[in-house]
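#structure-requests
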Amino acid sequence: MRREPVTGPMARWQRWRWVLADVMAAGAPGEVPVGAPEAVAGAPREVQPLPGAVVVEGARYWLFNGLRATLYRDDAEGYFLNLNSPSPCFWVFWRTDDAQLIDGEPMAVPQIATLSYHDAGRWLDAQEKVDQVPASPEVVEWLQAFVAEHHHIEPKRRKRPDSFKPLTDRFGQPARVSTGKVGPRHSGGESR
């Protein structure tokens, strides 16, 4: 996460803002990270920006360990939609934590990382803070393999409008509609 100074008129109300800087894999996609517990989860620590990353003047960078992007078979469509977007990405849902302060202000703490378009949409619908960053080519390959194995496109079954369905009586037999009009305004009709 990157904490950067806000410039312009908005700086009167908010001096700093939090932005998702990047998602880094602890191992190869699909692997469970192995090693010391602090490498898997732990307190956030301040780090230097990665080489080639966007560097913002006055910004500070924080690394959060322990988030895991897990793929679920029942959400294969959400991953499929992500892969078919112009730039497949990670979405990270985060909240500010009043218990962790930096210069007297709450720290942004990532809660969940996902590759599912559906998860991100639900969080955004709930007005949560969600940022996205492009996924690495290795993660995209891993996601493509998962989607190829588990996602099956359902054939579209358009509901036929009732006006085009054949008429049936209450017993399910085809009904006949008579066009023979009877009445004073129609020829051949009797008047009373």
